[in-house]
Amino acid sequence: MEEILIVDRIENGYAVCETEQGEKKDIPLSETKDVHEGYVLILKDGVYIPDKDKTEARRKRILALQEDLWA
Fold this sequence. Notes:
Blueprint lengths: L3 E8 L2 E6 L4 E5 L11 E5 L2 E4 L1 H19 L1
Antiparallel strand pairs: 1-2, 1-4, 2-3, 4-5
Protein name: DUF3006 domain-containing protein
InterPro entries: DUF3006
């Protein structure tokens, strides 16, 4: 089973993330590769790696929700 996290923010050397269950988890930046706010991370071989496809799909869902609010 893979662990999936969403990066909420970068703070004091940590990627502050939220799990799929809504729990907070702080990941040291040394355990990640090039992360930014909003990225979807997948744990792979002990390193949290950004998943570009899942991140892009999440961004599109959020943009669609925003458009619905203002339409």
